[in-house]
Amino acid sequence: MALDIVKVDSVREAAATIAASGDAYFLAGGTILARVANTGGFPVRTMVLSDGLGLDAIAVDGDTIEIGAAATMTRIAAEPRLAFLRPVAESIGGPAIRNMATVGGNLFARYPYGDFAVALLALDAEVTIEDAEKTRTTGLDDFLASAPAGGIVRALRFKLPPDGAFRFTKVVRKHPHGASVLSIAAVLPETGGKVSNARVAYGAMSERPMRAKAVEGALEGRALDAQTLENALKVATDGCQPQTDPQATDWYRMTVLPVHLKRLLSGEGRF
Amino acid sequence: MARVPVVFTVNGTEAAEFVEPGAMLSDVLRDKLDLTGTRVGCSQGTCGACTVMIDGELILSCLTPAQRVNGKSVVTIEGVATNGELDPIQQAFATGFATQCGFCTSGMIVAAKALLDANPDPSRDEVVDAISGNICRCTGYEPIINAILSAAAERRVAKSA
C-alpha cells in the first residue's frame, strides 16, 4: 500500500500534522513503524519524518542528562558521558538496528522489547512531549502506564546516578543480542552503607516495562546483605504478569526472575 | 497516489527514479535498479538479509523508505567488489565455504565490510557482534566468523604491502 511520506520543519508541525490525521505516525528509526507498515499490524497511511529536526542531541547540564528522542543506540553507546548506559544500548539488536533504533522509539517498543525504557525507568527519567500547542513533561512511570495522549516525544531527561549505582542485566536465549527473556535495571545509591532511593525496573515481566516497587521497599534503608537480599527476593515477582512468547513461557520468566535479581543485587552478573 | 522522485547515489553512480510513495529502499534497489543482490527476507528487521550501507552506516533497507535516502550515498553488495575484483571478504567467503544457500550472504558481507572499514583488526567477539543482526540458517556461523577474521588479516596485509 502506498504511504505518504511527509517532511516537516519543526516538531510542532509534526505534532499538528499527526493530530490532524487519524492514520499518521512519526517515523524515527523505523524499526517499529516501518515494520508495522510492512506487515500490516495496523493501518499506517502517512509517516512524518523526524529527519532534520535536531532531535538527536545529547546535552549535559551539571548532573542532568537530556537525550534527544531521536538519538540512536549507536550514539548512546559512543557517548563517553553515558558510559554506564553502553551495556544497555549495546544489548539492543545488531549494529544495523542500533544505527536505526532510537531512545524515543524504545518507549513504544512492544513486549518483550523496550530494554532501554527499562533502564530509563530505573533512572527516574522524565519525558518531554511537544504537541501542536505546548510542551509538557511527565514521569516515565506515568507515560508507560497510560496510552500516550498525543504529541511527539522530544527528549528524555534524568539525573546521572552516583558512580557504580546503576546496574543492568538482560537475559536472552539468542546470543549475543536476542529479545529479552527478561531484563532488570536498578539504581541503588548507598548512603552510609545503606541503600537510599532504590529504583528497580523490569522488562518483559509485564506488558510494559514496570517498577518493582516491593523490591525497592525491601531494599530501602538497608545494607545490601544476605538478609536484605532474602527479603527482596521474597517479593521479586510481586505485580509481575509476564507473557508467553517464543523467548520463554510466563512460568519460566516468573521462575528465573529471582535468580537474576539475586545475581544483580549481589553484584554478580553485572555488565 | 502520484509517484515521487528519489535521487541518490548507489555504488558510486547516481540513481534517479520515480517510486511509489513510501516504497522501501530494498524494493527500489531490487525492482527499479535491478540490484537484486540485496535480499528481502523478513521485512521486519529481524533477518539482516537486506543490510546495506547508507553514508557509511549499516542500515536495514527493508525498513528505510526510499524517500529518506534522497541525496545520500548507498552501498549494496554489488558495490563491494572493486573493478571486478572481489573484496577479500567476498574471496574469504568463497574459499572458506562461508556461504551455502546464499540468501544471507549479501547482508553478511556488507555487515562485515562495515566492521572492517571501521575496525581492521577485530576480535572474534567483535565479529560475532558485527553479524549478530544477520541470520544464517545453513552454516552455523563458524565458517562466516572465520572468513571475516581471515579477510581482516588479508586486508591488513594488502594495506601494508
TrEMBL record, chain A:
InterPro entries: CO_DH_flav_C, CO_DH_flav_C_dom_sf, Diverse_Substr_Oxidored, FAD-bd_PCMH, FAD-bd_PCMH-like_sf, FAD-bd_PCMH_sub2, Mopterin_DH_FAD-bd. Keywords: FAD, Flavoprotein, Oxidoreductase. SUPFAM superfamilies: CO dehydrogenase flavoprotein C-terminal domain-like (SSF55447), FAD-binding/transporter-associated domain-like (SSF56176). PROSITE patterns: FAD_PCMH. It holds the Pfam family FAD_binding_5. GO terms for molecular function: FAD binding; oxidoreductase activity. It comes from the Bacteria. Residues 1-163 form the FAD-binding PCMH-type domain. This is CO or xanthine dehydrogenase, FAD-binding subunit.
UniProtKB/TrEMBL annotation, chain B:
PROSITE patterns: 2FE2S_FER_1, 2FE2S_FER_2. It comes from the Bacteria. InterPro entries: 2Fe-2S-bd, 2Fe-2S-bd_dom_sf, 2Fe-2S_ferredoxin-like_sf, 2Fe-2S_ferredoxin-type, 2Fe2S_fd_BS, Beta-grasp_dom_sf, Diverse_Oxidoreductases. Residues 4-80 form the 2Fe-2S ferredoxin-type domain. Keywords: 2Fe-2S, Iron, Iron-sulfur, Metal-binding, Oxidoreductase. GO terms for molecular function: 2 iron, 2 sulfur cluster binding; metal ion binding; oxidoreductase activity. This is Carbon-monoxide dehydrogenase small subunit. It comes from Bauldia litoralis.
